[in-house]
Each structure stands twice: as C-alpha cells, then as structure tokens.
Specification:
Oligomer: single chain
CATH class: Alpha Beta
Distance between the termini: 19 Å
Strand content: 35-45%
Number of helices: 3
C-alpha cells in the first residue's frame, strides 16, 4: 500500500469531495482517464496526486495494477477574512482549504 497527500489545497472540501467520489475504488489508469475529462477545478490536482501515489508505489517496488482503496478529503486551515457591510459593520468570509489523502493498494486477481 502506498499513499500521497495534498495539503492545504485552496478549495472547500465539499467541492473536492464531489470529484473524489468519481474515482473511489477505480484502478489508477481508469481514474486518471476519468479525471482527464472531468470539467471541475479539483480534477487536475487530484490527477497529479493519484499519479504521484502511483509513482510512490512503483518506487516502493509494488508491481501490477493499483486500485484506489481510499481517497479522503478532510478540512484544512480556514482563512478568516471580513467583508465591509452597511453602517460600519462587517460580515465574516471563510476561505476554506482541503487536505486530500489517497491510498493505493494492489488490485485483486480475478
């Protein structure tokens, strides 16, 4: 089993999870081709992350096809900003970030 982590990706976890659900449980090649034609913004960083996890597996000496056994999107740091509002008040703005972890495992023989 090999893994790769993307820390402090500046997009909310809710939006990243929508793209992560597309590739969960698929093989690496199938996941990369799916993300290549996905129009959402997190598709490109997730594609790079899965490719990095596959290279990590190759460097560890794992052979054969790899499957995405787990892809987890957690909440990262939240940047807190303020937006000026009427009569001298302000409203909070939360700029959320994500931490994405991909774990690959060898494909089971059929």
């Amino acid at each position: 089993m090999s893994s790769a982590t993307l820390k402090n990706y500046r997009q909310s976890p809710r939006k990243v999870r929508r793209v992560a659900h597309l590739v969960r449980g698929k093989s690496v090649a199938e996941a990369l081709s799916t993300l290549q034609f996905t129009v959402k913004r997190p598709a490109d960083p997730l594609m790079k992350l899965i490719a990095s996890a596959a290279e990590n597996a190759k460097n560890l000496g794992e052979k054969g096809d790899m499957v995405i056994s787990s892809i987890r999107v957690d909440q990262g740091k939240t940047l807190k900003r303020m937006m000026p509002r009427a009569r001298g008040s302000s409203a909070p703005i939360r700029k959320r970030s994500s931490v994405v972890t991909v774990i690959l495992s060898p494909a089971k023989a059929k």
